[in-house]
């Protein structure tokens, strides 16, 4: 089974070698058919501490690195506006 890859925005880079990435999805409610925006936060491994808040990055699924960290940063899509 292939590993999942998501694109999201880094919202926190305060932890050492870890960034928090928010992935935004648009889904449809199963009963009411209304379009809903959903946010999911993932903790991703950043070995070199090079990604900062505001950057758009791609993350890939990996084996567990800690209790909450099961993703790695694959690459940067776009630099944050700073």
Give the arrangement of secondary structure elements:
Elements: E1 5-12, E2 18-28, E3 35-45, E4 56-61, E5 71-78
Parallel strand pairs: 3-5
Antiparallel strand pairs: 1-2, 1-4, 2-3, 4-5
Q: What would your notes on this structure say?
A:
The chain has strands at residues 5-12, 18-28, 35-45, 56-61, 71-78. By secondary structure, it is mainly beta. The protein has one domain: OB fold (Dihydrolipoamide Acetyltransferase, E2P). It has a five-stranded mixed beta barrel.
What are the key terms here?
single chain, about 80 residues, mainly beta, OB fold (Dihydrolipoamide Acetyltransferase, E2P), five-stranded mixed β-barrel, 5 strands
Brief synopsis:
This protein is mainly beta. It contains no helices and five strands. It is globular.
